[in-house]
Amino acid sequence: MDTDKELESQIGQWRGYVERRHAISSADTDEMEDHLRDQISDLSAAGLKTDEAFLVAVKRMGNVDDISREFAREHSDRLWKQLVLLPAAPDGGRTRPTRELFVVLGFAVGAALVLKAGLATLDEQDLARNVSLFVLPFLTGYFAWKRKVTHRLAAALVVPFALAAVLLNVFPFVSNGSTEVIAAIHTPIALWFAVGVAYVGGQWRSDRRRMDFIRFTGEWVVYLTLLALGGGVLIGLTVNAFDALGLSVEWVVEDWVLPFGAAGAVIVAAWLVEAKQNVVENIAPVLTRVFTPLTTLMLLVLLVAFATTGSVVDVDRNLLILMDLILVVVLGLLLYAISARDPYLPPDLFDRLQLVLVASALAVDLLMLFAMLTRIAEFGFTPNKVAALGMNLVLLVNLTWSAVLILGFLRGRREFGSTERWQTRYLPVFGVWAALMVGVLPPLFDFA
Question: Membrane-crossing residues (predicted)?
Fold first, then answer.
């Protein structure tokens, strides 16, 4: 009985891996699963153990990525035409523009209009505090619509945005004070987890769905960056073309193009990730394999620099902030690499490089903690020090156990799945910390 449960679990994990390839429909996956089960049955009858039969059957089925690419070539309408067209109707009717495209455009325009209204009515400080409230509710609404969430969940998703709006605008922040800046920085981080709840359709307890959200976040950043770069080039060319004609359009760009482009890009990037996820999944491993060694080299060089420049305690405050940002980038890179890796492949050189990356980040984190604790002992607590100290402690726990799990995987004592589960189950800690920075830290320091 235990063997049957283990086999069903393995088949379930394999099916989940296949289903993430959007070029393969559910019916195709069913057919592939039937073929896999037939192979397992034949191999078991030939005398192989269940786990051995499963591994051999999967190997005989071929590489799933190759299968995905084969389906992509044979069914190109599933990849490119799905962006703007629906598949042909069952009765042979004509295709028509997809309703989702118009829904996405509606949410994008709504976010842009709200942002434009905020720019016209709020001063710079109020705008900086509330900017995430102008856009992220529309992104959450898009996923709530797409996942067809229940009315109860939809109502629950309103709560964090309403609470954030109240706190940010009722708290008597000191003008340009530290707590105001900290709250403005951490609000979009906390609200991103509300976006995540909508993205997973309320299945927040599922490790697989949490990893899907991590993967989406990385891919969304990639697409948003590409849209921003492309939009910047297009705007620059357009402005220069009008300048050559003796016409000034800077005011149009500043008052309309930039607000609508920035807000709309947030929604459109999410839609592109949803529509073209299988394409970005081919990019993800490339990005991680390029930036992981570069980031590791950078951390090692920084550690050598710290060792040769004297006391860590005397390092510049701005350098401490910069190092914390680098650690956040390292964590994001680690999460993206884990989400892009096939958990069933054996350890390779890249996994060893990841261990070096995590170990280097840990060393930097410990140096930053030592420097901050020394500064706190000498000058006392401030909002900025508390925020930085807390973030470093959160990162320290995550990176430490990640290093242990990766080392265990390299030694063959753990499965890679344990590393995935650690990251997905630790994810809410970041959201809780960000929420504390918005709702608890400002009152503790009298909103200064």
Answer: 101-121, 127-145, 152-175, 181-200, 220-241, 256-274, 286-307, 319-340, 352-374, 386-410, 426-445
The Cα–Cα gap between 358 and 299 comes to 10
Beta partners for 85? Answer: 97
Secondary structure of residue 309 in the 3-state scheme: coil
User: What's the rounded Cα separation, in Å, for the pair 163 and 174?
Assistant: 20
Radius of gyration of the chain (CA): 25
Indicate if 257 and 122 belong to the same structural domain.
Answer: yes
| DSSP 3-state of 249 | coil
Residues 6+ apart with CB under 8 A from 147: 198, 199, 200, 201, 202
Distance CA 185, CA 323 (A): 17
Domain hosting residue 390, numbered range: 276-414
**Counted domains in the chain:** 3
Reduced DSSP (H G I as helix, E B as strand, rest coil) percent helix, strand, coil of the chain, to 5: 80, 0, 20
Tokens of 192: 């991103």
Token couple for 262? 């920035």
pLDDT tens readout for residues 119-152: 989 988 899 999 999 999 999 999 999 999 999 9
Report yes or no on whether pTM surpasses 0.85.
Answer: no
Residues 278-289 pLDDT 10s:
555 556 667 788
